[in-house]
Each structure stands twice: as C-alpha cells, then as structure tokens.
Specification:
- It is built from four helices and no strands.
- The protein is mainly alpha-helical.
- It has a domain of 59 residues.
- The longest helix is centred in the C-terminal third of the chain and has 31 residues.
- The radius of gyration is 20 Å and the shape is elongated.
Length: 102
Amino acid sequence: MNAEIIMTLYVFILAIFVGFELISKVPPTLHTPLMSGSNAISGVTILGALVVAGHESTWGDLSSWLGLAAVFFAGLNVFGGYVVTDRMLQMFKKKENKPEKN
C-alpha cells in the first residue's frame, strides 16, 4: 500500500471515531437544532463530492462512483435536514382557532 492510501484510511477511521463520540454526547433536546445547523456543512460536502466525482485519479472509475455516491448521500442529508427543520418549526407555530359549525 502506498502512503496516500494509508493516510486516507487513517483520516477516515479517525473521522468515524470523532463523529461517533460527538453524536453520542448530544442530548436529545439539541439533536434537531444541531441537525438543522449541519445543513450548511452538508452543502460544503456536496461541493467536495462534486470535485471528487469529476477528478481524474489513479483509482480510475472508483473515485467517480464514490464521488457520485457522496453527492447522493449528502443531498439526502440536506433534504432530510430541511424536512426535519420544517417539521420542528411547525410544532412551535400557534394553532388557529377554527370557528365551530352548528
């Protein structure tokens, strides 16, 4: 294995560990607001994934497919985050009183 692959795997494994530790420490009451805030980060992820998908590499088509998968999953994350945020905001809206029908 060359040094680039080893370093890439090292960063990937470290990111998994740090992400798991951070997410497990978030209390349930803060989960939805933090998910809403992470949509901007997912937007940056989409840009990075687009760069990877269009980049020529020594790995051939694998990097293009991984980039495409990253674009897809980051897009799902952004869309899901906005859906959850909208649902959360709906909970805090005042309910309108409907006139009773007799």
